[in-house]
Design goal:
- 2 copies of one chain form a homodimer.
- In chain A, 12% of the residues lie in helices and 35% in strands.
- With 132 residues, chain A is mainly β.
- In chain A, the strands form 3 sheets. A 4-stranded mixed sheet of chain A has the order 2-1-6-5.
- In chain A, a hairpin with a 5-residue loop joins strand 1 (31-37) and strand 2 (43-49).
- Strand 5 of chain A pairs antiparallel with strand 7 of chain B.
Chain lengths: 132, 132
């Protein structure tokens, strides 16, 4: 159980105002992680971390995620070169989400489709329009 | 089944480059939704939507989520006054995450703890420091 890398979540007040990092992983042992660009604040991607990925991210300063499709630890950019240097890590009020401020390396992108951000499409009139 | 409000997800290329909004809900019928401030780009919160919440958000221009703790549709701000006027809705490459650009109403906040954003704490030296 990699969840034991962190203390178990506490009572609501401790989760919300305490100084202890006690992330609340879901039934699959995962927590949602948002990556934003440290300089532009653009939202780059939403991915998932298990406890090991979060621990490695904090220890190395490089973003690590957990690939749900591959069911494996995923050092972002290991094959694409789009490594993410972590500038800041935040957690939300109940500690069931993580926010990373990162600087993407390589070509500066974060999305496997080729766009800078994964959120390159806007919903308009019920359909999708690419507007990177 | 509210998921039938949207077409079922298609093949990878259609999900990624197509013009059809076909969100990929998880086994619980939910999709992650990031809300950022439309003017400052600050990440305000991460929440969840079922198909009905997404459909209502698109139809009304007010953010609706699904509360996992209450297992109920949640019109953001209904009790707090922190309604979220939606300026733009985006989806990510495989359409399993939604990005909302919103203007919070009421006191301008988004977090029940009293901060503007739910991400008011930074991880530092393994602990948490409040830095709204």
């Amino acid at each position: 159980m990699t969840q034991s890398l962190f203390p178990a979540p506490g009572a609501a007040h401790d989760q919300e105002r305490g100084a202890v990092l006690s992330p609340k992983f879901d039934a699959d042992g995962l927590i949602a992680a948002i990556a934003v660009h440290a300089d532009t604040a653009e939202v780059l991607m939403l991915a998932w971390m298990n406890a090991e990925a979060l621990q490695l991210t904090l220890a190395t300063g490089e973003a690590h995620y957990f690939s749900r499709s591959r069911q494996a630890l995923w050092r972002k950019g290991e094959t694409s070169g789009q490594l993410q240097t972590v500038v800041e890590v935040r957690v939300d009020c109940d500690q069931d989400a993580v926010l990373l401020k990162v600087r993407p390396q390589g070509d500066g992108g974060a999305c496997h489709v080729g766009f800078r951000s994964c959120f390159y499409r806007v919903v308009e009139a019920g359909g999708l329009v690419e507007r990177p």
